[in-house]
Amino acid sequence: MAFSEKIKYEIRKKALHRCCICHNIGVEIHHIIPQAENGPDTFKNGAPLCPSCHETYGANPTKRKFIREARDIWYEICENRYTHSEKRLDNIEDSLSELKALLIENFEFKAKIENKKFLTFGEILNFYFKQSVANEKDFKFCYGLIFFTFGEENNNEDNYFNQFRDSFIEIFGILLSEKIIAYSMKSSEIDWSKGFTESEIQSLFNICYTNMLLVFMQFDYESDEKKLGVQISDDNNDLIYSIIK
Ligand SMILES: [Zn+2]
């Protein structure tokens, strides 16, 4: 037997057509307990996996628990992200305003641009999604540093960042967060093979912060608050920010 079209549709819908492990779009429905072991064609035994994760994890019996957990977490995120998105956005609105004020106060903008066309929300996302990292090892290290170890509890700015980062992942997903780190790494001048100083990390952190805020501020398009305007530099490799309102 195989999954019915109805069950496959229900699973795709529940996962918003995204892989429950890597969150890429476009999924196949995987039998967690395989058909050869009489795994049933039920919603409970199905997991949405992209072709690549299907190949990597699908046939490995030791990964069944992992797939099941990843699936349940992803279903939960999808549900919170979309059915309650208005409420979620309300909840983070206050800390977001404080963050914006902090950014506008502390961040050094590269240029003041006037009377030019700024990128739309979609164009900004597209720019980030095109980013890749040259060195996978450096990327993983940097990602961990920014996303998992940053922040002292006694420091207000770090607390803001930690909260903001968690909301960001919840709303925009891990893939976009990774792409933003990839871009930020390229725009920072750290040579990872030679180590780095605290001020270099602080500046990288500011770049990541700005890029995430940029996504948020454009996303929240109906707000009357100040926005960041952004354009692509002449060599197409960099973003130039400016406050437009
Ligand atoms: Zn995947």
Your description of this structure?
The chain has helices at 5-14, 51-57, 64-83, 85-106, 121-129, 136-147, 156-172, 174-187, 198-219, and strands spanning 28-31, 46-49, 228-232, 239-243. By secondary structure, it is mainly α. Helix 6 (136-147) crosses helix 8 (174-187). It has a two-stranded antiparallel sheet with strand order 1-2. It has a two-stranded antiparallel sheet with strand order 3-4. The site of zinc ion (ZN) has 8 residues, from helix 2.
Q: Would you spell out the secondary-structure blueprint of this structure?
A:
Layout: H1 5-14, E1 28-31, E2 46-49, H2 51-57, H3 64-83, H4 85-106, H5 121-129, H6 136-147, H7 156-172, H8 174-187, H9 198-219, E3 228-232, E4 239-243
Antiparallel strand pairs: 1-2, 3-4
Helix pairs in contact: 4-7, 6-8, 7-8, 8-9
- What Rg is obtained from the alpha carbons, in whole angstroms? 20 Å
Q: What would the principal axes of the Cα set say about the shape?
A: elongated
What is the overall pLDDT average?
Answer: 77
Ions, cofactors, ligands: which are bound? zinc ion
What gap, in angstroms, lies between the N and C termini? Answer: 59 Å
Query: How many domains, in number, for the residues?
Result: 2
- In terms of DSSP E residues, the strand content is 5-15%
Q: Provide the structure class.
A: mainly alpha
Outline the low-pLDDT stretches: none
How many H/I helical runs? 9
Percentage of residues in helical conformation? 40-55%
Following the backbone from N to C, one meets helices and strands in this order, namely: HEEHHHHHHHHEE
- Quaternary state reads single chain
Largest sheet, in brief, is: 2 strands, antiparallel
Strand line-up across the major sheet:
1-2
Number of strands: 4
